[in-house]
Amino acid sequence: MTAMRGVIGQRAMLERLGARASRGDVAHAYGIFGPASIGKRTIALRLAQTLNCLDPKRPAGGCGTCLSCLKIERYVHPDVMLVERDPANKTIEIDRIRAMQQDLALRPLEGRHRLVIIDDAAELSEPAQVALLKTLEEPPKHAVLTMITLSPESLFDTIRSRLQPLVLRSVATAEIAAALRSRNVKDADAIAGASGGRPGIALRLASDEGERSARRAYEKELFDLVGSGLTARFAWAVDLADEVDPRKRSAAIDVRFDHWAELIRDAAVRARGLEDAPLRPDRAGQIAKIAAGADPRELVDTALLIQRLRRDLFWNANARAMLELFALKLPYVEGLAA
Length: 338
Ligand SMILES: [Zn+2]
Hints:
Blueprint: H1 11-22, E1 29-33, H2 40-52, H3 67-73, E2 80-83, H4 94-105, E3 114-119, H5 126-137, E4 143-149, H6 157-160, E5 164-167, H7 173-182, H8 188-194, H9 199-207, H10 209-226, H11 230-241, H12 246-271, H13 284-293, H14 296-314, H15 319-329
Parallel strand pairs: 1-4, 1-5, 2-3, 3-4
Helix pairs in contact: 2-3, 4-5, 7-8, 8-9, 9-10, 10-12, 11-15, 12-13, 12-14, 14-15
The structure holds zinc ion.
């Protein structure tokens, strides 16, 4: 039995949350924090389903089959609002928050609670955050606000301090593998090993061969770079920065850094000789080679640089300069290029 229907991992936290929500005992505002593909959105939806499920027993996570649960799953329930950034804008604007507040003040139409899911809350503009404070200070009785983000540090302290934090962590490989097996996925262990402790990635890998081969290609790209000299690395940086559409360019860079952060992290930990559960047991061979051939401090610096560059990327920093910096910093290990 999982702690909440269809959620992989986060068992202890979800058991408490689910038991309370089943009794209707709920906070007015939650902050759901954690890395990408860890299950933040799923947990927000399951909380909404628990609170508005038509089954009188209100199972944790909702029954999943009543009309209310189905509507919430499809984002068409009139009492559950999703607030996202308009793709044309850089932030979630104050107008969007004002409209949400008017909506939230209404009594629930079909359910017991009205819920708002803000994803990603770090994308709220400053005026939008200021406007939101009012709701957090005096929430309507029936209102539940869930603010999802990868980077809670981008929220005002005054906002963060009013959120009940639900912090999501990496899920054990064995737990992901078990969940995949229960969904009749072939190669459950291999896919779980490749997921970096993130159920969302595991499910995508399980359902999509294209995703699996893309992932292998990104990994090969990193291993090739580690085994290449500066000339080849700079050519790589120019190529990748060449995309004219800034959104496509950012996405192409971000997806690589997202994959590579896990591999570099594992190599850094291993180079320090620490015993630790690797994020990517499926790449232990190449990771061991990098760990053996590179200075541990350089690996840690590279991991930190990746984090910083991903933040800069969000603000459209100069892509080529960024990639060249990465090319300079990445340790060189002989014999890794294919
Ligand atoms: Zn239900």
